[in-house]
Design brief:
heterodimer, A: 145 residues, alpha+beta, Sufe protein. Chain: A, 19% strand, B: 407 residues, alpha/beta, Aspartate Aminotransferase, domain 2, 2 domains, 7-stranded mixed β-sheet, 14 helices, 17 strands
Chain lengths: 145, 407
């Protein structure tokens, strides 16, 4: 398979053209917005918890972005549904990157991780836990509002 | 002029990208370097390099002669009256910051108005917005109409809003390629008693620039967009304005005398060249000017216009493609465009896999992007070494992107 076919492989195109979890939640328990200043892409994430206040019952996203960021966020919503918020707030990024399964340049890595970073921010905000180190310093390329 | 022949001067085109010959359509962000410039850098370092204006020894004199010779070439290139009006900087951004700080902090205050346009690169927007805020001056941006043209009908209202002190505009827009009516704006600025600051970063590589004809007060440009090295650029300014200004950077080389009580400033241009300058880069800048003069700026402009007309025609074949910017006769070799429903990052990525380099993003023009109602655009830009085959490959790649990703 050529590099080209890998990058825009069928599963990526499917998630891009038919995103899962696309939309917004009116009464979200957790919500955050993320922006990639490099290209101006924006994503909003909405999460509803189950009765235990920790299980992710529903997760939706809206915004605009490239195929990689849209497909990655779509895959993410499938990946985290039914899992505990505490666990997802600390989700290793490789878990998502393995699922995406395509070679990513440093620039495109930011696209792929925009949704995950925004979701983590939403969960930390809702749970009142401190933000992970990667956002504490000025080195972060993601601008999270 | 023969672009194919000139292309052989540029070693970068000897390589393949992803197994395909490089198609480089991003010269608006930075241009490639011909052997003539690269050889000059090497020869200078190998035979004539030392710090300038310092030593009495032979090598330092040689280096100084080369550095000052480059200044004369760059000054003549923009038709300056005198070489001392030409300050070497690290690039157009630093040139504009120099004016904004050294002129702006002492000449702006409440009641004054700083005027830019919605078409500016952030480098001619942010420094003015910042200095206006620092000094209490008002900050106004001349708006654009739907076609991306400056709305000069708003000038009267802006003039009524306060004392217009600075007008800053780019001669050529880096995002849309628009050749702006800088002479008209300059005349208006002078009627208001304002200074006219021209960002020529995108104009100087492609278009003969004459500061006497433009009737501006300051002009900023960068070598790296003109086949020269990175980290060197120039500020041209009227001698009387530069002489009246406080220095910008302070330190060695820019002084007349330093005493415990007080320091006095050196003469032009050294007053604005503190510390060790990008010496070899300036010499390389001179070599780039020689190269462009040999090819001829008018020939470069004609070549790019032909490519522009050809590219606009070919790109119109791509379904769902929207271009931004004015008609070819008022435009440099820059095409900003979007493919409906396909994100610029994906377009640029798919093109890269075909060995075609274009830019995708906001082009440091977020106010313009907001006006166009987009987060980003794709941008293809041309230079003296661009050949029609590169445009053909761009169009093929766009068809491919459209087919793969359009929704």
């Amino acid at each position: 398979m050529s590099e080209f076919d890998q990058m825009y492989r069928e599963v990526i195109l499917d998630h891009y053209k038919n995103p899962r979890g696309h939309g917004e939640l009116d009464d979200a328990d957790a919500h955050a917005e993320g922006q990639n200043p490099l290209c101006g892409d924006e994503v909003s994430i909405f999460v509803a918890f189950g009765e235990d206040g920790d299980t992710i019952d529903e997760v939706k996203f809206s915004g605009r972005g490239c195929a990689i960021s849209q497909a990655a966020t779509s895959m993410l919503t499938e990946m985290v549904k039914g899992r505990s918020a505490a666990e997802v707030a600390a989700l290793p990024r490789d878990e998502l990157l393995d699922e995406i399964g395509i070679p990513l340049t440093p620039v495109r890595l930011k696209c792929a991780l925009l949704g995950l970073s925004t979701l983590k921010l939403a969960l930390h905000k809702a749970r009142g836990t401190p933000l992970p180190e990667e956002w504490a310093g000025a080195s972060s390329d993601l601008e999270l509002k | 002029m023969d672009a194919r022949k000139l292309r052989a001067d540029f070693p970068i085109f000897e390589q393949e990208v992803r197994g395909k010959p490089l198609a480089y359509l991003d010269s608006a962000v930075s241009a490639h370097k011909p052997r003539q410039v690269l050889d000059k850098l090497r020869t200078f370092y190998e035979t004539s390099y030392a710090n300038v204006h310092r030593g009495v020894y032979t090598l330092s004199e040689l280096a100084t002669a080369e550095y000052e010779g480059a200044r004369e070439k760059v000054a003549r290139f923009v038709n300056a009256n005198e070489a001392r009006e030409l300050i070497f900087t690290h690039g157009a951004t630093e040139s504009i910051n120099l004016v904004a700080y050294a002129w702006g902090l002492d000449n702006l205050g409440p009641g004054d108005v700083v005027v830019v346009t919605e078409l500016e690169h952030h480098s001619n927007f942010v420094p003015w917005q910042y200095i206006a805020k620092r000094t209490g001056a008002a900050f106004r941006a001349i708006p654009l109409d739907d076609r991306g043209e400056l709305r000069l009908d708003t000038l009267d209202e802006i003039a009524r809003s306060g004392n217009v002190k600075v007008v800053a505009n780019n001669l050529v827009s880096n995002a849309l390629g628009t050749i702006n009516p800088v002479e008209r704006l300059g005349a208006w600025a002078h009627e208001q008693g304002a200074i006219m600051v021209v960002d020529a970063a995108q104009a100087a590589p492609h278009h003969a620039v004459d500061v006497q004809q433009l009737d501006c007060d300051f002009l900023a440009f960068s070598a790296h967009k003109m086949c020269g090295p990175t980290s060197v650029g120039a500020l041209w300014g009227r001698a009387e304005l530069l002489e009246a200004m406080a220095p910008f950077n302070l330190g060695g080389h820019m002084i007349r005398s330093v005493k415990l009580e007080e320091t006095t400033w050196g003469q032009l241009p050294y007053k604005f060249e503190a510390g060790t300058q990008p010496i070899a880069e300036a010499v390389g800048f001179g070599a780039a000017i020689d190269y462009l003069n040999d090819v001829g700026l008018d020939a470069i402009e004609d070549h790019e216009r032909e490519l522009l007309v050809y590219a606009l025609e070919r790109m119109a074949e791509v379904p769902g493609l929207v271009t931004y910017g004015p008609a070819p006769e008022r435009r440099a070799g820059i095409i900003s465009f979007n493919l409906e429903t396909v994100h610029p990052h994906d377009v640029a990525q798919i093109l890269d896999m075909e060995g075609v380099a274009i830019r995708a993003g906001h082009h440091c023009c977020q106010p313009l992007m907001a006006k166009l109602g987009v987060a980003a655009t794709n941008r293809a830009s041309f230079y003296l070494y661009t050949i029609p085959e590169e445009i053909d490959r761009l169009v093929e790649g766009l068809h491919k992107a459209q087919k793969l990703l359009a929704q």
